[in-house]
Amino acid sequence: MRLAVIVNPDAGLGGRLGFKGSDGRAAEARAAGAEDRAGPRMKQCLDKLIEITNSIKSESESIEILAWDGRMGGDWIPGEYTSTGQTPAQTNANSTAEFIKSHQPDLFLYAGGDGTTRDIVEALGNRDTPIVGVPGGVKMHSGCFATTPKSAAEVVWSYVTGDLMLARTEVMDLDEDVYQKGEWKVRMYGEAFTPASPRWMQGSKEQVQRESESETLEAMALHIGNLVEDNSDLMVVWGSGGTLRQMCHELGYESTLLGIDIQHNGVMHKDLNEQGLLGHLSKHEGEKLLLLSPMGGQGFLIGRGNLQLSPDVLREIGIENLLGIATPAKLLGLNEVRIDTGDEELDLEIRAKKYLKMLQGYRTTRIIRVASD
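Above: the chain's sequence. Below: its structure in token form.
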């Protein structure tokens, strides 16, 4: 099997800095100290893939990796590969398109975000070559992403061995024009073929909201408000998303739709990046509470669109202080929640809890399972 590997080296750079995407801001992110995200995640995936193939040692199911030398491929491949070119000095969407158009593999394995996915699908045109995404960007709403880098390796190998069939999935991305008006709306830009695996593939984001839930949101907001009344020194970290934003509004605060905010002593500190969050959290000796709403259709609490919540930030808050927030409508389609912090040890620590609390009404919580991979 011929596997073409491509990395968008600029994907995910702005995540911890609080950028809502890295398109056009890579130089700014690097100047601010951002470190590569997509490349190391691809290496993590390929390390796992090599581990799997070495344990099987089947010549009939061998994989030939095709890649460009440099940071769009070869720099992150922990083993032999077939060089098909050189990464240009400056990379952009045209670089991705050139790679896709110049290769005819059995499968494309790529690391990036929704913007990268859109570039790949556009370059594929009418070709039905399947794709598997290693989650390495800031925004990852599309259904062709694996849940984690290691899951991407499992998907590739299962497809190689014939254990997974192909299915069409939606390619999604944030509607930037609508976002500028203060709304979070994800729309479909196309479709792609990808191996179908409910276990290892995340599925595409769904927006789950009903007009009749306003009373539920008000009740959940009242619950949080009562917690603050009972403990005036409680520091509340508000995650991103429409559910939490509406709850904030019920409490008389304005929060950012795609950012992370901190409420403390009647003040809302808005749209904080990783360092901003650590600055507030490290100075606070009292109780902390992190509120997170799972992504509809995918179930991710951490690792999709909230990279500001880095492993350091999460450890500063304490995983025991995490509270999920979900309306009954969203919970109907949610059997488990997923975690992808970017730190394997922290992921294992959270998964070891097996269950997390999910607030679904006034003083009404549900225990929900944490996905094991």
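Residues 2-195 form a domain with the Rossmann fold fold (CATH 3.40.50.10330).
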